[in-house]
Amino acid sequence: MENDLFKQAINPHQYDTNALAWEKEGVKDSPTRRFLQEYLRKHLVINGKRVLDVGSGIGQLFPLLKELGAIKIEGIEPSVQNVESSLATYPDIPVFQGTLLEAPIESLYDVIIAVMVFEHIDNILNALDKINSMLTADGTFALIVANKEYHLMPRFDYKIESQNLEDGEVVIKTIRPHGIGTLYDILRPLENYLSSANKKGFKLEKHIELKPTDDLIKTEPKYTQFAHMSIHHLMIFKKSLT
Length: 242
Known about the structure:
- By secondary structure, the chain is an alpha/beta fold.
- It has one domain: Vaccinia Virus protein VP39 (Rossmann fold), CATH 3.40.50.150.
- The protein is 29% helix and 29% strand.
- The protein contains 9 helices and 10 strands.
- The chain has helices at residues 4-9, 22-25, 31-43, 62-67, 80-89, 124-134, 148-152, 190-199, 214-219; strands at 50-54, 72-77, 95-97, 109-115, 135-146, 159-164, 170-176, 181-187, 202-210, 232-239.
- The strands form 2 sheets. A 7-stranded mixed β-sheet has the order 3-2-1-4-5-10-9, sandwiched between helices.
- It is globular, with a radius of gyration of 17 Å.
């Protein structure tokens, strides 16, 4: 399983390098950011809830979580640069600088969210164990992951390199031109997430295929050819009481 792409994908400080231009990727009006938040706004129920954002980046989700009525928001983020940026913009929202497995359990949360984070985690069973331990008895875990088939497809002017792993998993390097940056991700079949979640005490409540929205297609017409294909999956799990 050890290879250069894999090591890059699970490097917790991947975003402390110049590989990804967050000033372009993370801005408030980023089409892909609005795309993901449109689905989260529709399906998240967090009014009056204590929420943890795993892989909180520069705080992209914080305004949405506030809008939806979260009474407590905290983050976990391994990138030093991202945490510094997040705290500068949202000084009232604490963010632990480190990985999920390194984070202390100081309180429990009603909702935990992870958006495009598990693509950088080696052992998802260990990660799900940690998330389970941080949730209240009837807590919710919302997970957004890449659709493997879409992200392996030749598209736009991206350059893609990939290497097969075990269990149908693939590690991929996506080079995006025009200064946007390079991404390293582990792509997994959907069933790998579902079976792992079941083993670790989660029950699937919703599965939503995240297909290009009208707003995304209008802003980025290149997505028109993928209008009927899911780009990501949103899975909403409940912590099992059994």
